[in-house]
Amino acid sequence: xxxxxxxxxxxxxxxxxxxxxxxxxxxxxxxxxxxxxxxxxxxxxxxxxxxxxxxxxxxxxxxxxxxxxxxxxxxxxxxxxxxxxxxxxxxxxxxxxxxxxxxxxxxxxxxxxxxxxxxxxxxxxxxxxxxxxxxxxxxxxxxxxxxxxxxxxxxxxxxxxxxxxxxxxxxxxxxxxxxxxxxxxxxxxxxxxxxxxxxxxxxxxxxxxxxxxxxxxxxxxxxxxxxxxxxxxxxxxxxxxxxxxxxxxxxxxxxxxxxxxxxxxxxxxxxxxxxxxxxxxxxxxxxxxxxxxxxxxxxxxxxxxxxxxxxxxxxxxxxxxxxxxxxxxxxxxxxxxxxxxxxxxxxxxxxxxxxxxxxxxxxxxxxxxxxxxxxxxxxxxxxxxxxxxxxxxxxxxxxxxxxxxxxxxxxxxxxxxxxxxxxxxxxxxxxxxxxxxxxxxxxxxxxxxxxxxxxxxxxxxxxxxxxxxxxxxxxxxxxxxxxxxxxxxxxxxxxxxxxxxxxxxxxxxxxxxxxxxxxxxxxxxxxxxxxxxxxxxxxxxxxxxxxxxxxxxxxxxxxxxxxxxxxxxxxxxxxxxxxxxxxxxxxxxxxxxxxxxxxxxxxxxxxxxxxxxxxxxxxxxxxxxxxxxx
Length: 630
Hints:
The chain is of the alpha+beta class. The chain has helices spanning 156-163, 169-184, 253-295, 304-341, 407-411, 420-423, 427-448, 466-475, 485-508, 537-549, 574-579, 613-624; strands at 3-5, 10-12, 17-35, 47-48, 54-55, 58-59, 65-73, 83-89, 107-111, 117-122, 131-140, 143-153, 369-377, 380-390, 397-400, 454-460, 523-531, 555-561, 581-583, 588-593, 598-603. The strands form three sheets. Strands 1, 2, 3, 4, 5, 6, 7, 8, 9, 10, 11 and 12 form a twelve-stranded mixed beta sheet that branches. A hairpin with a 2-residue loop joins strand 5 (54-55) and strand 6 (58-59). Helix 1 (156-163) runs antiparallel to helix 2.
């Protein structure tokens, strides 16, 4: 499994032969510096760069490019080398960005000799820097590790090399960048002599294939129209840069859009956290200053006390106003980016009302993630960020059908005590809506997987969900009809439990080729409705086993349940509920973000009223499935 590093984080390297891939979206010069135990680079001969691309154990590209690949064999580097720093720099001239802050964040991945991903790092937080140490491979107690660095330098490549301990770093930086500039600058086109001066070539002399009357120099450009001066006292508009869908690091458009949506989520979290922090600081400073005024008995007379309080409130209002201006600016930019990105999303990331679903075709491969709803913050509720969850699912899903009016449900951690939308629905309607939401999630998971690559089972012991399950049943996408009664529940759980046991044994013993030839290789999803109705103690134990062990071998769980209904089991089921990702059928603010302390408001993926797009998509999924062998 790939380790997604953040700045300063390290990760062990399982192999000494590596390939380092760089995806920047714009040309970059890639190099590597070999350092000793103290991290110092003794001389220019210890730096691999486009002019001298090969060193013992290190090979770097010979020219700048948007996508770079560096080959590293740590077993072949000299014994004195304890650090290998991967360097990136922006070439000079050529119309490209002059700093990393003006372009997409570079993405760096470390892979093994067989192409297996080991670690990756998106270099964020850069601004005016034009050179950066991306990664560092270092030797520690005889083993090699990789550390995400992201150390940028406003002084460019010369400052970076100087910080590596190199003497006269400006000379080496100038030679590297100048050679890249010379390589990219085309030679001047030869100007033929006038016709009357042309002579026939002599034997053995150069031959000109230029047409005698064809111009080989570009005509002089027409003078540009003079700019219209702005009215006196006004300024030319300088709006924010226009965002582009897919303007993020990644090897494919799917990955770039995923990273862009994730970047929008981080930007919204940061700007909201900065605004709240500024407001909290303004309030605390106002309280402190008012306390100081009240404690100064000398200022109680003559109006000085009132003036001091007014000045303190004015400073508070100014700070809050400035924070609000920054927040409005950032939110406006995110809103513009959302308007550009949302229509460009593929089916796996798109809302159900996106026109992309009308041209849906089963995909050839599994996407990186799937959309399970939208997220927003109270600072701007109309700005919604897609909630993308990586595939394959690492944990099961739980659509909570509990009523917010149930005191017992709130005590157990279920229900949505602060959801106004849930409070407007009765218990029956809320349970129906919960199953409708689960069916929409299951339909999307079916649609985003390749044909025949995802199978869905349903347990509906009492048969109460027949109306909501009709799209899955009528289109024939289920692996079997919904299981009814205690016997049906037991049979489905036994089948999936045996599958998990079989796959785990095969993987642990390296005997995957010994699996039965008729075993379905598709991922499995079990929808459990109206839990714990129809479940005995043995069935509950098997359900917990599937929730814990199933995701590792492609067996996933989608629960539709009210936790209060299973209160009789007490704390026995607490690990089950904690292992599942809790979703709701109505908007709710139950998703906590420990990174910045936000409570994100979640909105489920709703189908447009009266839309038949769900059945149309499921019908195509059913038609594309390979025929079962007799």
